[in-house]
Design goal:
Elements lengths: L12 H13 L12 E2 L2 E2 H24 L7
Helix pairs in contact: 1-2
């Protein structure tokens, strides 16, 4: 394998920072100590967690497609 052709998401600092921020935002800690509000029958904190969990998954998929280079299949 050619070492300069290999690339991984972990080699991109901004991608890792975005992963960290999105991971932290997936935990609904901003709702601690607040009154529970509901939207469409579910607590808002649950919608928050679902949205950022989906964003985390999408960011991972984007990072793998965009940054993962491997010459094994070229």
């Amino acid at each position: 394998m050619n070492p300069e052709r290999q690339d991984e998401p972990r080699n991109h600092r901004w991608f890792l920072i975005l992963l960290g921020i999105t991971s932290l935002l997936a935990v609904p800690f901003v709702f601690i100590g607040r009154e529970v509000a509901f939207f469409l029958g579910l607590p808002r904190w649950l919608w928050w967690s679902i949205a950022f969990t989906l964003a985390l998954g999408a960011l991972n998929v984007w990072g793998i497609i965009r940054y993962w280079r491997d010459d094994r299949f070229d």
